[in-house]
């Protein structure tokens, strides 16, 4: 099995899960709030190590290595939209920065 066919089989393994996540409809404010709390606004692994305002080391976001990353971000977005459009909530609480 070469690398290309191995990559295709990995993609097909996640395909049903991707489709299931994409098909989720947000219709409950409690679920929407839970999704917004559980799925972070940005990758928690991204870091800048600085000394005297100079970046010494930058650790790129590892979340993009997650095969379900795009679907989870989309689910969070749908939840935020539901809270704003249907519930009239202020969602800025879900965008607080992490240590910046």
TrEMBL record:
<protein>
    <recommendedName>
        <fullName>Mo-dependent nitrogenase C-terminal domain-containing protein</fullName>
    </recommendedName>
</protein>
<dbReference type="InterPro" id="IPR009717">
    <property type="entry name" value="Mo-dep_Nase_C"/>
</dbReference>
<feature type="domain" description="Mo-dependent nitrogenase C-terminal">
    <location>
        <begin position="14"/>
        <end position="94"/>
    </location>
</feature>
<dbReference type="Pfam" id="PF06967">
    <property type="entry name" value="Mo-nitro_C"/>
</dbReference>
């Amino acid at each position: 099995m070469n690398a290309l066919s191995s990559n295709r089989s990995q993609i097909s393994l996640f395909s049903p899960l991707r489709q299931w996540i994409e098909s989720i409809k947000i219709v409950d404010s409690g679920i929407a709030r839970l999704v917004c709390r559980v799925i972070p606004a940005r990758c928690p692994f991204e870091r800048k190590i600085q000394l005297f305002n100079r970046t010494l080391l930058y650790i790129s976001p590892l979340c993009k290595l997650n095969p379900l990353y795009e679907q989870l971000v989309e689910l969070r977005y749908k939840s935020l939209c539901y809270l704003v459009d249907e519930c009239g909530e202020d969602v800025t609480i879900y965008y607080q920065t992490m240590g910046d």
